[in-house]
Amino acid sequence: MDTLIMVGQFILSLSILIVLHECGHFFPAKWFNTKVEKFYLFFDPYFSLWKTKIGETEYGIGWLPLGGYVKIAGMIDESFDKDQMKGPPQDWEFRSKPAWQRLIIMVGGVTVNFILGFFLFAMSLWYWGEEYFPTENVKYGIAVDSLGYELGLRDGDHIVSIGDKDFDKFSPGFFSSEIIINSASTTTVVRDGSRIDVPIDKKYIGVLSSQANQKRPLFGYKFPTKVKEVSKDSQAEKAGIKPDDEFISINGSPADFHHIYTKQAKQLKGQKVQITLLRDSRDTLSLQAELGEDGTLGFYAYTPYDLFDSATETYTFGSAIPAGITKGTDFLTSQIKAFGQIFRGRIKAKDSLGSFISIGKMYGTTWDWQRFWDMTAMLSILLAFINLLPIPALDGGHVMFLLWEVITGVKPSDKVLEVSTMAGFFLLVILMIYAIGLDISRLF
């Protein structure tokens, strides 16, 4: 069921993006009286799942969910329909239209994707706002992962800034992205009451962007081990642990903070342990308990959402529009910078490359509408960016040749367009197969 939910979200999101992208080509073509022969959601090699013809256009749904297309008469595209190009140009064909009209038809898809991404970000901010923890409210500082410790962070640090950006919103993801994308070389923290600068080695750009560490936070919230609820008939209940008890130690070793308690419990799983607790903030108790084989006692602890005050930045419809554009622009900028880091050799391409399997996993196994629309917005902007790359067979390849024609007045021959489109198409197929292969290898 979890997999079906994840796949369902991805297919719905992809369908929305494909249909609207192809509408960006379809409607300008119609406006300029260009014949559109097909409009398809998903590819239909050999057969389609559904099709119908309305006017001059066949509308359908293919069986291969790797994209979609509109087939415009008189245009050399991934269909490689050479027969249509043998006859003399007709007024209703793409090749007969002025270069500026052809350019508008070709950029229509990515234009829709950019606008859609900005719009969805804006509507998400307007409807849900943006919840976050102000860093100053995370009063115990950070709980450092081993990789964060290696980088130079320590338990209890209060992060002030990363690079030249203030760390006023507690976000481990933002911290890592500033290192990976913007090459942040220092972070400022308050440690034991003193403000210090921690240098960050350039090697961590590659380390953090590696496939093994992409989802691994450098740090989390440091918060006390305080019991919120005790499960019925659990080891915790049998030991006499009650709600609001605060852990002090296990077998004499500190367990007062949750990340420390978790490590201790895993090391002592299946054993009888001596637990020291603080009850009612005044009484110290010593209890015996037996940890389960998974290292648990059977209680739920208070989370940062229970212990710290979060904040939600709300937006009116008017303020959400520029905020959504800014959020989308920031995301696009980070993608462009990531490409730059790949070309510089600081990020390995194989660690950043993924197929529809990697993208699908990002939707999660529960249906969360805010995450769904934010993911759709990001994917829309990412698809627009990729489609604009000057690779024949992509929209950017067609735009490249059209700009050449507009600037020089020289139209590339059909043969040049045909060969380059075929080369670009096979390059994309090879990249797709490689990306799928990487994802499959990661699964095992």
Compile the SSE list and pairings:
Elements: H1 2-31, E1 36-43, E2 50-54, E3 57-61, E4 64-72, H2 99-128, E5 130-132, E6 142-144, H3 146-151, E7 158-162, E8 165-166, H4 172-180, E9 186-191, E10 194-199, H5 203-209, E11 219-221, E12 227-230, H6 235-239, E13 246-250, E14 253-254, H7 258-267, E15 272-279, E16 283-290, E17 299-301, H8 304-307, E18 311-313, H9 317-343, H10 349-352, H11 356-361, H12 369-387, H13 395-408, H14 414-443
Parallel strand pairs: 1-3
Antiparallel strand pairs: 1-4, 2-3, 5-18, 6-11, 7-8, 7-9, 9-10, 12-17, 13-14, 13-15, 15-16
Helix pairs in contact: 1-2, 1-12, 2-9, 2-12, 2-13, 9-12
Structure description:
The chain has 444 residues and is an alpha+beta fold. The protein folds into three domains: 2-128 and 369-443, no CATH class; 132-220 and 306-313, Pdz3 Domain (Roll), CATH 2.30.42; 227-302, PDZ domain (Pdz3 Domain), CATH 2.30.42.10. The protein is 45% helix and 20% strand. The chain is built from 14 helices and 18 strands. It has a four-stranded mixed beta sheet with strand order 2-3-1-4, covered by helices on one side. Strands 8-7-9-10 form a four-stranded antiparallel beta sheet, covered by helices on one side. It has a four-stranded antiparallel beta sheet with strand order 14-13-15-16. Helix 1 (2-31) crosses helix 12 (369-387), helix 2 (99-128) runs antiparallel to helix 12 and helix 2 (99-128) packs across helix 13 (395-408). The longest helix has 30 residues, at 2-31. The radius of gyration is 28 Å and the shape is elongated. The relative contact order is 0.13. The model has no long low-confidence stretch (mean pLDDT 89).
